[in-house]
TrEMBL record:
Coiled coil: none
Family matches, as InterPro entries: F-box-assoc_dom_typ1, F-box-assoc_interact_dom, SCF_F-box_component
Name assigned to this protein: F-box associated beta-propeller type 1 domain-containing protein
Pfam families the UniProt entry points to: FBA_1
Domain annotation F-box associated beta-propeller type: ranges: 11-196
């Protein structure tokens, strides 16, 4: 299904995309967060503009009732849809002009924003968000001079910061390449991209690594899905007869 052009199409805009299902209104939605940043100048910067495409209406509309904070989203990283909400990694300036990383959350049903704090990790590390089963997880890469670590954090109780637990701490050497976490296979195995040269999966408990034997693209993303009988070329809130 090809979407119509969004309302905000300025080439200087910085857009992050999210997609998910609104169970309350039986509607699939695409969300765009659009920002123009000027070096975190609080006198000039504004919160990202928010627009939503609804499958039920087939149109884009602006969201003004709830706006996110002034923040910078990691636009190239995938979002995670879990618990009826979209999640993006973001950062903003806190007291003392320090950069504070957090997870920006947009509830698709009520269309309101909130924030979830990260576990106690350094903001200088590379990380991304994903879904593992029904849980919200954080994939973390820590690079060292001789190699590094790939870590997996899982939030056992959604929205409760104290429930972050570390499930995986996998070491790698410099000669092995630097893995980039992509997501999970259906059987729950961790999937890595090694320097855009190969994809491998790893078993949590045994840490057994398997080459998936396919050539990655320049920018590879992974996401979870749920099978559905919804026809994307038909409004989600109307009946389809045959």
């Amino acid at each position: 299904m090809k979407l119509p052009s969004p309302n905000l199409t300025d080439q200087t805009c910085y857009a992050s995309i999210g997609f998910g299902f609104d169970a309350k209104n039986n509607d699939f939605k695409v969300v765009r967060l659009v920002s123009i940043f000027k070096g975190f100048d609080f006198e000039k910067d504004q919160p990202p503009a928010v627009e939503v495409f609804s499958l039920a209406t087939g149109e884009w509309r602006m969201v003004t009732a709830s706006l996110p904070p002034i923040c910078l989203l990691h636009g190239c990283e995938p979002q995670a849809f879990v618990n009826g909400a979209l999640h993006w990694l973001a950062c903003k300036r806190s007291a003392g002009f320090k950069i504070h990383s957090f997870i920006l959350v947009f509830d698709l049903e009520d269309e309101v924003f909130c924030e979830i704090q990260l576990p106690n990790i350094s903001s200088e590390l590379q990380y991304s968000v994903a879904v593992y089963g029904n849980y919200f997880v954080l994939l973390q890469t820590e690079r060292l001079l001789c190699g590094g670590f790939q870590k997996l954090w899982l939030m056992e109780e959604y929205g409760v910061v104290s429930s972050w637990v570390k499930l995986l701490n996998c070491a790698f050497c410099l000669g092995e390449g630097i893995p980039r976490a992509i997501g999970f296979r259906r059987n729950g195995k961790f999937v890595f991209d090694f320097n855009q040269e190969e994809h491998v999966s790893e078993e949590f408990e045994t840490q057994e690594i398997k080459d998936l034997l396919f050539t990655p693209c320049l920018c590879t993303l992974g996401d979870s899905y749920v099978e559905s009988l919804v026809l994307l070329d038909k409004p989600a809130n109307t009946a389809v007869t045959y």
